[in-house]
Write the structure tokens for this entry.
Amino acid sequence: MTKDTGLQINPKIKRLVCSASGQEVETAGFRRPIGLCSCCPPPGKPVVVEYVLDQVELGEPAREKGVWSFSELLPVVGPEPSFASDVGLTAIVELEPWSREAGITVLAKNEGTNPSGSFKDRGLAVGVAFGTACGAQRFCLPTQGNAGVAASLFSARLGLPGCLVYMPEGYEDGLYHREARYFGAEVRFHGSNIAAAGRKMREDAAAELASGAYVDMSTFFEPGRLEGKKTMGLEIFQQCGADNLPDWILYPTGGGTGLVGIWKAFQELIGLGKIDPARHRLPRMVAVQGKNCAPVVESFQAGLEDVRPVESEGTIADGLDVPGAIMGHGILRTIRESAGTAVAVSEEEILARFADCGRIGVAASFESAAVVAALHRLLANGAVAHGERALLLLTAGHLIPLGQRRVPGWD
Ligand SMILES: [Zn+2]
């Protein structure tokens, strides 16, 4: 497989470690895919990649390379340009009407221009490539959103067997189902939520997962997705410069891969000597959730070290309907290390800000609208001060919410 695709393990990987214990994880020469750690109680904790930073050259962004512009800081190198040259390198634009209104600088990084329409493409491109370089033959995941679509798209681009996608029963014939099928996925339905769908998937594919033929691409179950999402942080650094980083980064937090990934990028940039924390102020990271499902916000406010799962009451922002977080310890660590915060917004606020986005011509998903709502809260309570710069991570565009259901109060 590796010979056909040209994919190779990055020789500048130093080691893999458990995100919870810090213990080194055995890679066995990457002859099989890497999953969760075995040092923590089952099912284990997420594994993260470290690089030999004094040998790494940070590449300049190049459109023909997409996220592989930063290949020395990715676990896998050598994809054909057609695999992911259209992934990443998204624009950061200032939203002047909101800057003027709020007396701050409002910046937006718009991820809706990725090939499958969301930021999920970054993590799944790298995760699928990394798993393939480790000898996997097929990818599977439970999903209630764009991750399944992205995994299907990148499986198709490598000519792999269709991605095996499990969705909750209510998702049949919905937009995500139709999109995953379009990219060749085999889609199965089980249970009432993503956790139940995931359990069924691990039961059905137990033998293939155990042998390493399949990779479980669930959020944080393998290390590649985090590395792909990290490229958002590398780009923010390249686009803004070390002297002009945003004061705040607001991020809609479901599983939290991007929040943790952006912060990992900044730590690696410090290791590379590109950012000097004594001179450059790092952004404060804000986790944004919906009030109806806010495990990170509640656990942050309670001062916990890890995220305590909640019972979701359901939210129109599918990407935020994540009642537990396997990387909860990493999310809370990121918020605290960065002197950031966590904000929960109501369904009404999400819908109101979704309308605001359309009004000024911003292509926003409901998750992106939640981030706009969170900025208004931080302005109202004085956390974001006059003259500061806030970067909103707009994770997907308007077509996803508008394409899958009637928007309440809209039609
Ligand atoms: Zn562990």
Observations:
- Residues 92-117+228-404 form a domain with the Rossmann fold fold (CATH 3.40.50.1100).
